[in-house]
């Protein structure tokens, strides 16, 4: 009876994961979907703790189990409450790394347990029947393979996520050397070769070889992310997230745990699809992202910094207030500068003030704006901006030609016309927001420094563009005051 109840708990958990993931695809239902999936996870965890049995024995050690849960819950709660929205990408990357580390630790524990109680039999067959491959035949090949996959993928995800976290918060700089991609390929081949050798010779293997694979996987994760530039971080975070999902699914195989397997597969599949969508949004292949070093030294190598752009013009706050107040349609383009300044609430106040004057206000969201997928959507949702006002890139591009004023808040590379006009640019071919089609374009930036891709923005020097320098939050607050005084 208890086994049936545990199976039901796993079924409920699996269903809530699927329902929650579906609801996450819409900003209006995302919060509820997250809670539903979290509720299913709680049911699955409690079911495992109290109902799981092996050889007639339950888990026990409840003090250690709930002590660990309490510590982890406290750390997670405090981290989530204190994190700034600008630091959300770092936290996502860090937590994702913890998932990879967990999967790797599971593999280590299971390998040590297997070697301490070897199920090997004399006269084993190297090719066991397929129907027993993932059970425990004379040599548990399937189990060994799953352990090694969980170890390698989990370790790469953990190490890579930690480097990504460091790069996002500025503690780790881009690093590359000549021949690094070849070095990475050789390292990966070495890892796969050693894993194959260990699988074939599992009877006579030692722990040393297993931990060499572990160490090389960690090292590979570090060098895998090191050369990738900051502009590609949304893709890298999404890719590493899929790695963690696959590693977790390996744990589900090891323990024959349906909910763990389902959750891992969902995360792996969703992360993979999101990675593909991110690459499509930048009109680049995943291979190009991983070896292109976009956002690092590649931009300077392409000569983007040395081009003579001409002069730009500034606009005053009072003129900006007049132009926006008497416009029929205004489009706001949020970028990372908005997040840094924590200006989303001021932006929403400006939106409401303009709408009170009869101005139609909408937001244009580029899929890779910010430092993680959906970063701008999260920021604006926090400020209670209506979801229907958030236009995806394709929708927004259809409306720019009929827009009187576009206000760009801290966005850079996602509005750079060089992506369409300059074949020598490192972002050439990347779909962008066509803000230059509007009648007037006002760009708010702290300075004329290039964006994450490290290149000048042609938009800033076009005749219809005016620069409004300053911190986004203060500029918006002053702009609101000016409009109120008109």
Automatic annotation (TrEMBL):
Family: Belongs to the PNT beta subunit family.
Entries under InterPro entries matching the protein: DHS-like_NAD/FAD-binding_dom, NADH_DH_b, PNTB-like
Keyword NADP: yes
Catalysed reaction, written as an equation: NAD(+) + NADPH + H(+)(in) = NADH + NADP(+) + H(+)(out)
Organism field: Terrimonas ginsenosidimutans
Superkingdom as given in the UniProt entry: Bacteria
PANTHER family for this protein: NAD(P) TRANSHYDROGENASE SUBUNIT BETA
Protein name from the UniProt record: NAD(P) transhydrogenase subunit beta
Enzyme class: translocase
